[in-house]
Amino acid sequence: MGRATAETAETAGTPDDPDYLKHSAEVVRDHLAAATELDTFLEDAGTLTLEQRTLLVDQALVLLEQNYVHLPLKIAMHAVNPVQRLRLIRRQLEQQTPATMPPEWIFHSEMSKVFNSVRDLHTNYQLPAPFAKKIAFLPFLVEETTDGPEPRFLVTLVMQGFSAPGFEPGAEITHWSGVPIGQAVELNAGRFAGGNVAARRSRGIESLTVRSLSAHLPPFEEWVTVSYLGTDGVQRELRVFWKIVDVFGEQAGPDGEEALVLGVDYESEEISRAKVMLYVPHVIEQQQAVAAGESPRSAAGEIASTMPEVFTARSVETPSGNFGHIRIHTFMVPDSRAFVDEFVRLIGTLPQNGLIVDVRDNGGGSVWAAERTLQTLTARHITPESFQFINTPLNLRICRSSGQLDPWVPSMEQAVETGATFSAALPLTPEDLANEKGQQYFGPVVLVTNARCYSATDMFAAGFQDHRIGTVLGTDDNTGAGGANVWEQGDFLADFPLASSPYRPLPNGAGMRVSIRRSLRVGDRSGTPLEDLGVVPDVRHRMTRRDLLEGNADLLARAGELLAAQPVRELNIANVARADGALRLRLTTANIDRVDVYLDRRPGASVDVPDGQADVTVPGATAARSVQVEGYAVGELVASRTMPL
């Protein structure tokens, strides 16, 4: 307790009201009332038979040995052999009987270790009932600030109804069950499967107080003893019990063709929904209002959205000026076109002189939603990322069984002769969809990332950087580094009617997921995998105390500085008229010195323009159905506007 003041350290004991859940917001109160303490919850655990355990191991072997695209990379980068570890577990099961097999939690622990060893949040073992779809939580969040000589860990959110002396946002955690907090974070980080150091540390901090039991064993301790320096300057200790509750609701994902082009960390999705339930339940009220057909609602200062669980949009005042700020919480949406339309509508209501796109903590979702959004922020043609299967006989059978996967088949068949490890690299997002809407925002853009950006969000950040849309401002050294398309074990059962299929239904609600296709970057980094590497930000910002406690004040100020240093472009088609077989355009422009005009994608005119208004006449427009105007500054394409005729 070296940071305590001269006052005597106190022991807070249990919170002022141990039944704090009864004071939670009305919209979640009944749901949280069903929460149980850890010891009670575990009384119902442990019903897998020996045969069911063997089935789980056998199915894991199929996925990792024959479907897992990153297996060669993971063996090389992390010096692991998950397939051999599974074979050893299989052998141990053969030597056991129902009477001698170890407790179920030991089996789950061994399976989780195998999947975690590859450090891939796409590839995981999901525990069966009663763990599936459950969240373990403590009633507060802890975040790290690094603006001092050493990291410090502050309480940033406390559940409504929970209180203890001096324990509120700004209280500083010093020890965690007697372990210095920095060391406790490092130990916790070692249990998680992040692909790089930044990702593991970020997960280690988050999981101090909220965990998905679908992906991880329950906490070993029934309670934690939190040593903290209170906001009143007094050092105290607080005992807090873990609670277990069902995940609230479920984020709808795509179906049909888009269902197999997901890039998502499902654990992050569950934790994000848990945080909404525990700390911002008004978002659930907004969702329910939209679902009931009511007009969208919003919190003070925010733009009302038809997708309140997906977007938060507002104007922010910084020392460098007033800018737009849109938070994308998830790409896990049922309709990528509706997602892009709502994004465009929201940014159209924000200041047009600069936009902060904030994707921190976004666990991904629809690859189509992520890659189709990029076009709205740039004049450049979007090249979607490419994806590869690993070449195995089973993957070839799967691709032959689905017309959707036909493009990968020729290269996989050829691999029988060439011995190539991977298939051809082909996009998941059709290129025409990635470019159908065109640029919608013409001011400068900054993208804010952290180490909990994963999968489709990694791809969004990579595309943003690879197409030079703007500056990537990161609060961690990397994004989460999830570079793959993920399929669930149930997808193989339901979507691919293979003769003598090796896939079997899993018992008791257990599940498994696997990275099936790896992604490769484009542009200057063409061919570089995202997995384990992630996106390194162009500019690094270390989160400050003001960021954690005052609405990201310093982070937004830094983003504002970056935006203010960039020119604001304007390119509008103010008027269109046909006359004598020609098309006459009146344009308004700013910070553009030349425009090229295309009719039905064929070149029609190229003229120099001043800032302000310019009239351009394009001959041969009698049958033209669309006009596209591209604006250049010093020879670089900086703006593009398309209009149907």
UniProtKB/TrEMBL annotation:
Residues 1-14 have a biased composition (Low complexity). InterPro entries: ClpP/crotonase-like_dom_sf, Tail-specific_protease. It comes from Streptomyces venezuelae. Residues 323-539 form the Tail specific protease domain. Residues 1-21 are annotated as: Disordered. One of its GO terms (molecular function) is endopeptidase activity. This is Peptidase S41. It comes from the Bacteria. GO terms for biological process: proteolysis. Gene3D superfamilies: 2-enoyl-CoA Hydratase, Chain A, domain 1.
